[in-house]
Amino acid sequence: MTHIFMVNPFAGAQTFADDLRTKLSTIKGLDYFVFNIRYAGYETALVKKIQHIFEGEKLRFYCCGGSGTMRNMLNGFEDLSETEIAFFPCGLTNDFLKMFGKEEKRFHDIEELIDGDVIQVDYIKSNYGVSLNSLSTGLDSNCLVKMNDFRVMRMFGNDVPYMLATLYSIFVSKNKEYEVILDNGIEIGKFTEIFIGNGRVFGGNMYFAEETCVDDGRGFYRVIGDRNGFKRLQVLLALIGKKYDKYSSMMTMGECSKIRIRRTDGSLFELNQDGDIINGVEVCEAEIVHKGLNLVVPKGVRV
C-alpha cells in the first residue's frame, strides 16, 4: 500500500508540515509521498491527479489539515467507497472527530493512523459536492461570507475577522424565507438557520444533537425559526451549553436522510459545507450516504 499525505501547510502551527515530514522519515518500511496543498480548493484537483499517477495501486489518503481540507479532498474522488481516508487533524475545528469522544486525541498520533483500522461511516452527498460533517445555510453561511469582508482586520489578530463576522451575523444580518423539504414534510418561512448534520458538533462548539450515529444512514436536522438579535444569541448559547429544551419552541429538529432547500422567491443563497462556502446556490438537494466512506481510525476506536 502507498500512503499519500496531503498537507495543508497553512493549518495548525507554522512548523506543522516540516514536523510531519520529519516524523514520517523515521518510520521504517513506510511507502509514502507527501504533497503540499497550495491554496484552498487545490485538494480536489490534486486528489484526481494523484489517482491518475498511481492508477492501479492501492492507496490510503491522509487529510493533514482541518475540516475544510477534508471536505475538499473528498470531492476529488469519483467513488469514495473505493478508497481509504484518514483524518490527521490540525485545523481550528475538526468537528466530525468529536463523534469519537475521548478517543479523539488518538487521531493526533500519525503512527496510530498508519497502523489503524478501517471502518465504514456515512457522509453527506449534495448536488454541490460532498461533506463529512454538516451542510447548512443561515447565520453560519452569513458569517463565512462576512469573514472575507473583514479579512483586513487580521492585523489585529487572526481571530478578529471571525469575531466581527459572528457579531454581524447575529445582530445585523436579515433572515430569508425558504422552503425546506425533509423526510417528514415541508417547512416554509423565514429562518435563522437550516442545518443537517452527520455528526453532532457544528462550528467548533455548537451541539446540534446529543445522540447521533454516523453509520446508520440518518442525519440530524435543526431548523431555527425567524429570530433576531439577542434571541439568536440566546439560541446559539443554548446549543453551546447543550440546553436543547430551553428554546425548543424556536426550532424544529429530528432525524432525516434527505433535505431540499430553496429560497421561496427563487433568489440565490450561500451554502456552508464543513466550513467551506458555496455561492450562487439555487436549490440544494442533499442526502446521507449510508456507510459510503472507508475511514481510517486508530486500532480499536469506534464511534
Question: In brief, what are we looking at here?
Answer:
The chain is α+β, with helices and mostly antiparallel strands.
Would you give an account of this structure?
Helix content is 23%, strand content 36%. Strands 1, 2, 3, 4, 5, 6, 8, 9, 15 and 18 form a 10-stranded mixed sheet that branches. Helix 2 packs across helix 3 and helix 5 (139-149) crosses helix 6. It is globular. It starts with a strand and ends in a 6-residue tail after the last strand. It folds into 2 domains: 2-123 and 292-297, Rossmann fold (3-Layer(aba) Sandwich); 134-289, Tumour Suppressor Smad4, CATH 2.60.200. By secondary structure, it is an alpha+beta fold. Strand 1, helix 1 and strand 2 form a beta-alpha-beta unit. The chain contains 7 helices and 18 strands.
How are the elements arranged and paired?
Blueprint: E1 2-7, H1 16-25, E2 32-36, H2 42-53, E3 59-65, H3 67-74, E4 84-89, H4 110-114, E5 117-126, E6 129-131, E7 134-138, H5 139-149, H6 160-171, E8 176-182, E9 185-191, E10 193-197, E11 201-202, E12 206-207, E13 219-224, H7 230-240, E14 251-256, E15 258-263, E16 269-273, E17 276-281, E18 283-297
